[in-house]
Amino acid sequence: MSGDDRPAIIRALREGSSFLVLLHELPDGDSVGAALAMVLVLERMGKRVMAVGVDRIPRPYRFLPRADKAVVSGDLPLSAGLAVESWDTSIMLDCADPERAGAAWPLARKARTLINIDHHVTNIGYGDLNLVDAHASATAELVYALARDLGIEIDRDLANCLFVGIMTDTGSFRYSNASAHTFRIGAELVEAGASPEELAARIWESRPVSSLRLLARALTTLGLSDDGRMAWLTVDDAALADAGAEEQEVEGFVNYPRSLEGVEVAMLFRPMADGRTRVALRSKGRADVSRVARSLGGGGHPRAAGCILPPGPDRALDRVLAAAWREVSS
Ligand SMILES: [Mn+2]
Fold it and tell me: Can you give the pLDDT at residue 3?
């Protein structure tokens, strides 16, 4: 589903006075980059604006401008001047469905106008105004286009946020979603002051040692289907505790099974304390993992998707492998 209420969104951004900008749960580089870029754009327009999410911004992204001002929704003193009625517009970014914002979603919903800006093919257009473009490499690419339409000059701060969103969602401009258009935007952002070398070093090469300890442990769980077309890792709570790692350090691990020759679908299983299992899916071939995720109650992109499985009689692993197998053999 797609929707393009761009003119109405431009009008709403110009006419609104206070804005709530939403990150999704366990925010990735695109969620953070797009949200902080939106904050900078709105500030430049003289608006009151606050970024909010259920989780803290992960450490690798905290150097970005305004990252220190983002609020964790659980910390919001709703009775102390931050009453939800005081925000006239809320902007959901990079959330295929409202639940992606977790407990911050009710906050967003109470604003007079809800704007939904996203690039997931599974987005159902839940906003009052929707800008959903599955051809965009990243939500940050859509924020870039809005900034342009609004006549906002792209300075270094804004360029850094937007570049991080695009760089992380395209695997450093490598994945199938990195189009010629994406590279053109990348070039403009570099001209505006974004440094690919510095941003890559900060995000990909500033890991805490716990992250490599966790990876070492995760790699011992490698599973491979008999035909070698599906591979997966599992990261459980014990692995996290033993490595002294935080949840966010699991991000990107699914790329290791994906990197194997012959693998078409890679998966990462993250059993959670409440019995549910979070699953990340990546495709390297023709397989459309957004279909696999959707059949299991999740969503995403053809090459990168995810779902959360409720506890059930069958192992999460078996259910997901069966669904993934249907996709690779179709
Ligand atoms: Mn994204």
Answer: 66
